[in-house]
Structure formats: C-alpha cells, structure tokens
Amino acid sequence: MSEQKKRNWIFLRGLAREARHWGTFIEQFQKTFSQDQVFTIDLPGVGENKNEISPKSIHGMMKKVRKRAMQKSDKNEFHVFATSLGGMVALDWISSYPNEIQKAVIINTSSRKSPFYQRLRWEIWKDFIAQISQTDHKKREEGVLNIISNSPERRKAFLPLWVKLANEQTIPLRTALIQLVAASRFSHPEMSLKEKVLFLVSLGDRFVEPRCTMDLAQMTQAPIRKHPWGGHDLTIDDPEWVLNELHLWLKE
Asked: Does the residue 107 lie in any domain?
C-alpha cells in the first residue's frame, strides 16, 4: 500500500447499530490498508449521537453524517464503507455531493426501485422488531445475530461484545422504527456509479433479498461481487473475503 495515496474512509453501519458493532473488523481493515485513515460515524439517534432524534429521511441522516465527516477531516474528499441502511446514506451522499465521495463500498442494501415484496421480508422484519423490543439484552442480541449472520461460530464470537454494548446503551425502538420507515422510502440516485461504487452482496442474506443489491448494481452500472453463503452482516461472516474483494477493486 506504500505507493497508494492516503484515503480517508468513513464507516457507516446499518439499522439500529452503532460503530462499536463493527467489532474487530475495523482493526482488520486498518491492518490491510495501513496507510489509510478510518473514521467511524454513528447515524443520528445511536452510539455517540444517541441524544439526537433520528431524521425521518435518508437525506436528513446523510446531512448529519456529512457534517460530522467535515468536522473529522479538512480534506473534504472521502471513501465510504457502508452496510445496509448506511449504504443508503452513502448513495444519497454520492447523489447530492458527487465530488466529495471518491469511492464507496456498499454491502447488502436496497432501494424503492426494487419490488416491495423483495425489500421487506415481513416474516424476518417482524422477527427483527420483536428481537430488538426484548428487554433481556442477551436474548435480544442473540436473536438479532441469528437473523443477520449465517455463521454459528462468528455469532458466538460476536455475542459477548454485542451484549456488552446493549448493557451500556440500549438503542430505542423508536429510533429503529424511524430508520426502518426512512429506508422504505429511499430511492437510489439516477446516475452511473460505474467508476465510483463497488457493491457486495450476500446470496445467503435472509434480512434483505439479495436481488435488491443486484438490481441496484445493474441500474447504476456498478460492479458487484457475490458471496455464496454469507448473511446480511457480511463483515461478521467473512471479513477476509470482504477485504480481499475491496483490495482487488481498488487495484483496478
């Protein structure tokens, strides 16, 4: 990586999750791209921004995230690594301020342009809402991990951290519901993302239909890489694969 120009990465997580839920992935990323700078930014209403009321639109969330990114770096040129809901925020940022985002990696996300029945698997979403409504933190985080991860070993490894985070700070159900409604209304940018975005999709995603991410890649003419068995949170299930695909793409 020594010959590469230093990149400023903004990391964005998904529905009802905060930056600390990345776990060891941030460390793995920094080891792989040691010359780059990493900034994690929580969406409004979670993590460091827990006292904020979440905006009711992806665009409103993007404006909050963008403001914090500008405070973290005076360069005003960013790479973005985002998953799920965070991917929608990244796409809206690219659409609104295309010169500010150099490259973006977006994992398992969706847009209104995909059919409603593909975007919202009600049997799973109802289960997810039921899980995050639980007052027993261990049962709740175990239930969430069972939905978004397809690796029993990785779920077991992440559970203690997620229970610890839940004990320290419970993400309000209201925030999760606001985020869910905002996600359901999001439309992707009407522009080619061929040179700017890499989509990663888990073919084993049970939370969001994989077809949604594939449709986004096709409609925006962007490249896509498909993981054969991973769940919705691909950075949990196979972080090495994610980092390898990112490394290959950045070399192109």
From this structure: yes
Residue 155 sits at φ, ψ, to 5 deg, of -60, -45
- Measured CA to CA, the distance from residue 232 to residue 203 in angstroms comes to 9
Q: What is the pLDDT of residues 44-81, one digit of tens each?
A: 999 999 999 999 999 999 999 999 999 998 778 999 99
Q: Residue 198 and residue 180: Cα distance in Å, rounded?
A: 24
Burial 26-52 (b: 16+ CB within 10 A, else e): bebbeebbeebbbebbbbbbbbebeee
Mean pLDDT of 147-157: 97
**Could you tell me the CATH number of the domain that includes residue 234?**
3.40.50.1820
Structural domain contains residue 83: yes
